[in-house]
Here is the input.
Amino acid sequence: MKTQIVTLATAGLAALAGFTHAQDAADTPQAKLTLISSVNIFDGTSDKLHENMHVLIKDNLIEQISDEPLAIIQTDNVTMIDGRGRTLMPGLIDSHVHLTYSGTPHYDP
Here is the structure.
């Protein structure tokens, strides 16, 4: 009898631990993935255009760049973009500024 109670208690704790672990996994948000396929990449470091490339972005960071198609399963957390041979390049920043007159109270154009 005592052995059965210990066995049942052990099984109950194991089931509870498994349920808690499964619940934690369910509460963990999936990474947001974006797959951009069939694009030409200008990387800004060379004058060469890398043609017909595939880019995987995970949570807004480039995870992988490949010249072979990437096998990604379409789920709710995945956005797939067909680049259709367009060019992908780094973001451009307009750094043009005039600091000379910035915030000058006596400047009257």
